[in-house]
Fold this protein.
Amino acid sequence: MKNTFGDSLTVTLFGESHGEAIGAVLDGIAPGIKVDEAFIEKQLLLRRPAGDISTSRKEPDKFRILSGVSNGYTCGTPICITIENSDVKSEDYALFGDIARPSHADFTARQKYHGFEAKAGGGHFSGRITAAIVAAAAIVIPALNRKGIFIGTHIKRLGGVSDRDFTDFKQDISYLSDASFATLDTKAEAEMREKIIEAAREGDSIGAILETAVCGMPAGAGEPWFDTVEGKISHAVFSVPAIKAIEFGAGFGFSDMKGSIANDPFVVTNGEIRTMTNNNGGILGGIASGLPIVFRCAVKPTPTISKEQKSVDMKSMTEENITAAGRHDPCIAHRARVVIDSVTALTLADILAVRFGTDWLA
Ligand SMILES: Cc1cc2nc3c(=O)[nH]c(=O)nc-3n(C[C@H](O)[C@H](O)[C@H](O)COP(=O)(O)O)c2cc1C
């Protein structure tokens, strides 16, 4: 399905960066879930640009729930949420007109939509659309929390600076849920902020690795083949613009291990079968093992930069240099982390709805 994700609980995205509004339709949601508008606002705030480490585009992210919620509870029918675009300056983008921004979707959008695509601000490919994902997931996250499932993402690495690992998952996730810059170590935060500012000063951008942990996912959820927990999470995470790699548990680190080190030995803890280590990142055979699900994804440096780059004018077919004016994030990672939490929440809620039925979430 185009622009739609999920099997039982689906989310459909619509809108363009500089159109009237963006939004999401959430379908297959259980009736009777309390909708906390203050929580939706809080989640949107975590994604919103802030200070000198983000784009200067300032969107208030004023959202409206048009359907599917009555007296503060989900009705069980499709929920349509819209978020208006108000801080729109299309003249910034007229400057690069038909010149494809290297690493952005301008060229591939032209191939697919033959020039009819909305161009300003990246159109339907803009990171702005992720606000709709965050708003939709903010309806689902409190319901997952009530079922004991918690999700958190931190910036694991940026510009050569590393954050500490998760230690106490529940405590760390709780800390991250209120952190305006998602690191577990304040020294790492200061150093990473400096790296972002340095890149911005140079008219450049910088990439990062985000690490996500989920605790409380019940063992047994997921499917053994195509709809594996890894597969579904990867599908959703790769839908987030600028994500270019993902690994679960020890991930690529498995290449340097022997089985005796890589294997997670089983033990009985408080009457439950657990594993002593979690190199498999909480997933075995595509199915949740009950251990924390841990994965890392790579966020590429923001494509639009003000340093001069070589490109092509797609209309005149001439080679041109491009220097991007406009308002852009020197780094995407600190805004994307709540987007990763959000797509993870929507994915897990869908997996759980497939296993236990849609009403389980309520
Ligand atoms: C939260 C968020 C903000 C983003 N902001 C920008 C931006 O300001 N400028 C830009 O060129 N790309 C930005 N992007 C990334 C582009 O949308 C993305 O790189 C582009 O659509 C090409 O897709 P791909 O990188 O997945 O191949 C942002 C992405 C996210 C998730």
In short: The first helix runs from residue 37 to 47.
